[in-house]
Amino acid sequence: DAGVIQSPRHEVTEMGQEVTLRCKPISGHDYLFWYRQTMMRGLELLIYFNNNVPIDDSGMPEDRFSAKMPNASFSTLKIQPSEPRDSAVYFCASSLAGGIPYGYTFGSGTRLTVV
Amino acid sequence: GDSVTQMEGPVTLSEEACLTINCTYTATGYPSLFWYVQYPGEGLQLLLKATKADDKGSNKGFEATYRKETTSFHLEKGSVQVSDSAVYFCALSDTRGGYQKVTFGTGTKLQVIP
Do B93 and A101 touch (CB under 8 A)? Predict the structure, then answer.
């Protein structure tokens, strides 16, 4: 398995532009998570899905952020409009649940810079 | 709610020194415990885990024992290498409510110098 695949690896955009981050989870995993990592705030859970359904989006910072999972093999995180304070590394992770703690598999992340 | 507290870094050690990174947790249920490692420019990788009290997780020379009585899961390695330089995250997993929620600590940066 190729692991969790995120694209792009790096994104530089101007303030006000729309940004879309993409994630392909591990085949068969039924949970998908979006995290944001910054020096100031550490690792923050933004939203997670179970069987493609959003379960908890309480970590999404503002209405400018939205996430979708149209099928089991693809998810997007969109920021519109983007702001400099959105600059961070965004990680996608997937896992199996069912009460057995396998842990998460993380992607390599997307480093977003908003100028 | 659940929480994880780990020692602040950075931790700087010479090659072949012994490593201990402290981690304590608070949880109302019976969580599973994890250590993740993040190398520069990469995502977090699962290093080891323990699912019940007194279990010992081990991988790549690292060990951690699930201590319920002290609510701790300290990471140890007898002889560190330069390649161990990374950020280490302690985490707990609680499967209450039918889903696997993972709570991460703030991370401890380890720098190993030759």
Answer: yes
Task: Give all strands (DSSP E) within chain B, no chain letters.
Answer: 3-6, 11-14, 19-21, 23-26, 32-38, 44-50, 56-59, 62-65, 75-77, 86-94, 101-104, 108-113
How many interface pairs between A and B have CB atoms less than 8 angstroms apart?
50
pLDDT at B1: 81
Q: Can you give the length of chain B in residues?
A: 114
Query: B63-110, pLDDT tens digit by residue?
Result: 999 999 999 999 999 999 999 999 999 999 876 655 667 889 999 999
Candidates B44, B49, B43; CA nearest to B62 is B49
Q: Is A20 helix (H, G, I), strand (E, B) or coil?
A: strand
Band of residue A98 on the pLDDT scale cut at 50, 70, 90: very low
